[in-house]
Amino acid sequence: MKAVVLHPPHELRIDDLPPAEPGPHQVRVRIRNGGICGSDLHYYHHGGFGTVRVREPIVLGHEMAGIVESIGAGVTRVTVGDRVAVNPSLPCNTCKYCLEGAQQHCLDMRFNGSAMRMPHIQGGFRELLVCDQAQAVPADMPLERAAFAEPLSVCLHAIRQAGPILGRRVLVTGAGPIGVLCAMVARHAGAREIVITDLLDAPLALSRKVAADRTVNVARDTTAMADYARDKGHFDVAFEASGSAMAVSTAIASLRPTGTLVQVGNGGAETAIPLNTLLAKEITLRGTFRFHAEFAMAVELLARNAIDVAPLLTEIIPVDDAIRAFDLATDRQRAMKVQIAL
């Protein structure tokens, strides 16, 4: 089978790998669509992010959807021919965090397309993927839409971290796919006002079409956010999706006292936080990491088209042209979400 395999950074190959057979309680999925995520781009360009480094060839990809091709003994959730969105997260369900219902913090997590473990957990940019039946979630919809389930799950979890959104004024800093999806989920949850900031015009233009009441190019208009900081702030909730220290400061300055900042973007260990302002305004700072129960919710919302992700899909590129797909996904002026067709 064909698979998109990263060797050293920037050395992306279409390798021919042997397919595996499903064991008990496993299914084999013929992957049709796989979305390129920011972490895939970090692996491709930099060989990893933070302390996570690629140490052996790895099949990339964790945003994936396809058709069940075969099933192992004991499988009851799906049948051959079912369309499924594949949840890349496989927690152990026995460690203390899993037993507390916080499977996203599993001590023995197996996450497709991740170099955190050694050997690496291979990803979904391959023609055939064997997974646990719990990971194959029935998805009665076009597969290019179903492949949005993973990033949408991330955003649903982030929204849950923020608490009630109905009637709230919301700021989103960073108009990449996760930031825009956060805004779309906030709109679905009843946000009163949504403002999105970024450094580039193209993603901001798309943001205005799908979710934002106003967008601000903070690279060009360096004083625009000052109005939101007057009288101790304007927004009730902020989703920081860029990982930028400047964006964190802007979000805290723009939040009203007792507001909530949900940190979605990963800016590295050295990101500065204005603690004095955080303290004086009694801001709640919350991290958000992956998801668990939200994956099934994401599939349901996508199946009903309750959140229309179609405007975010820039192009679907055949697997044999995967390098072009990664290069296009890197160009934020031209692309929001690029998928690989397998």
CATH topology of the largest domain: Quinone Oxidoreductase, Chain A, domain 1
Average pLDDT, rounded to a whole number, is 97
Which secondary-structure class do the elements indicate? alpha/beta
Which spans of ≥5 residues are poorly predicted at pLDDT below 50?
A: none
Roughly how much helix do the residues carry, as a percent range?
25-40%
**What is the radius of gyration computed over CA atoms, rounded to a whole number of angstroms?**
20 Å
From the 3D coordinates, which CATH architecture of the largest domain would you assign? Answer: Alpha-Beta Complex
CATH superfamily heading of the largest domain = Medium-chain alcohol dehydrogenases, catalytic domain
- How many helices? The count is 11
Give a topology summary.
Blueprint (H helix, E strand, L loop, with lengths): L1 E5 L5 E5 L9 E10 L2 H9 L1 E2 L2 E2 L4 E2 L3 E9 L11 E4 L2 E2 L5 H4 L10 E2 L16 E5 L3 E3 L4 H4 L2 H14 L6 E5 L3 H12 L4 E6 L2 H10 L3 E4 L8 H4 L5 E6 L4 H10 E9 L11 H6 L3 E4 L6 H10 L9 E6 L3 H9 L6 E5 L1
Parallel strand pairs: 13-14, 13-16, 14-15, 16-17, 17-18, 19-20
Antiparallel strand pairs: 1-2, 1-6, 3-7, 3-11, 3-20, 4-5, 7-8, 8-12, 9-10
Helix pairs in contact: 4-5, 4-10
Short précis:
Helices cover 27% and strands 28% of the residues.
Q: Could you characterize the architecture of this molecule?
A:
The termini are close together. The radius of gyration is 20 Å and the shape is globular. The model has no long low-confidence stretch (mean pLDDT 97). The protein is built from eleven helices and 20 strands. Strand 17, helix 9 (275-280) and strand 18 (284-287) form a beta-alpha-beta unit. The protein has helices at 38-46, 96-99, 143-146, 149-162, 177-188, 201-210, 226-229, 245-254, 275-280, 294-303, 322-330, and strands at residues 2-6, 12-16, 26-35, 48-49, 52-53, 58-59, 63-71, 83-86, 89-90, 110-111, 128-132, 136-138, 169-173, 193-198, 214-217, 235-240, 255-263, 284-287, 313-318, 337-341. 27% of the residues lie in helices and 28% in strands. Helix 4 crosses helix 5 and helix 4 crosses helix 10 (294-303). Strands 3, 7, 8, 11, 12, 19 and 20 form a seven-stranded mixed β-sheet that branches. The chain has a six-stranded parallel β-sheet with strand order 15-14-13-16-17-18, with helices on both faces. It has two domains: 2-148 and 309-341, Quinone Oxidoreductase, Chain A, domain 1, CATH 3.90.180; 155-287, 3-Layer(aba) Sandwich (Rossmann fold), CATH 3.40.50.720. By secondary structure, it is an alpha/beta fold.
